[in-house]
Specification:
The protein has 194 residues and is of the alpha/beta class. The chain has helices at residues 23-34, 71-82, 115-124, 145-149, 155-178, 180-190, and strands spanning 4-8, 40-42, 47-54, 57-64, 89-99, 103-106, 129-136.
Length: 194
């Protein structure tokens, strides 16, 4: 049975901690915490990696340590080393078009202008399954989009994310246990409760 990768997209460094664009890192960090896992730095793959077993397969949690728009180059080499194919990867990232506190599993949807997803698609040659976590919130017209996605969450926004975290992790576990199609059906069925 093929190995599986859960990849969180984000930018490395304290400057980007707690920013909207780094919600992929945050989700994968919380997943590791829930399983009492610790990330290990892998200079070979320019990533932080943690591993565990689930549904009779090895699961690799990955946080690429390049800037987000270079994530694909890292994953191309890593997936080759670990035997990850197009059907056994889930990309976790922020999504501007989804309301904060909500999330969606999707299959072959286009990158939608997300530079990290574009990099992954261009490097791998296919679009992995994606777990798109909403970061949409009202922003002042004076704030540019690039500044907005790199802005920090407010305390109320963080509370909302933490409240809905168990549902986010449940969707990822559904992907691992049941595959994308069934996980999408399960998540869409319960999305109204998130």
């Amino acid at each position: 049975m093929a190995n599986t990768a859960i990849v969180g997209l984000g930018n490395p460094g304290e400057l980007y901690d707690n920013t909207r664009h780094n919600i992929g890192f945050w989700i994968v960090d919380q997943l590791a915490l829930s399983l009492n896992l610790r990330f290990v730095e892998s200079p070979t793959h320019t990533s932080h990696i943690a591993e565990f077993q689930r549904s009779r397969r090895k699961v690799i949690l990955v946080k690429p340590m390049t800037y987000m728009n270079q994530s694909g180059k890292v994953l191309q080499k890593l997936f080759s080393s670990y035997g990850i194919d197009h059907s056994s990867c889930l990309l976790v990232h922020d999504e501007l078009d989804i309301e904060l506190g909500k999330a969606k599993l999707t299959g072959k949807k286009g990158p939608g202008g997300h530079n990290g997803v574009i990099s992954v698609f261009e490097s791998l040659g296919y679009m992995p399954a994606r777990f798109r976590v909403g970061m949409f919130a009202k922003r002042s017209p004076e704030i540019s989009l690039s500044d907005f996605v790199l802005s920090s969450f407010s305390s109320d926004e963080k509370k909302l994310l933490n409240k809905n975290l168990p549902d986010f992790l449940k969707y990822i576990f559904n992907f691992l246990d049941h595959g994308l199609d069934k996980a999408m059906n399960l998540s869409n069925h319960t999305q109204s409760a998130v």
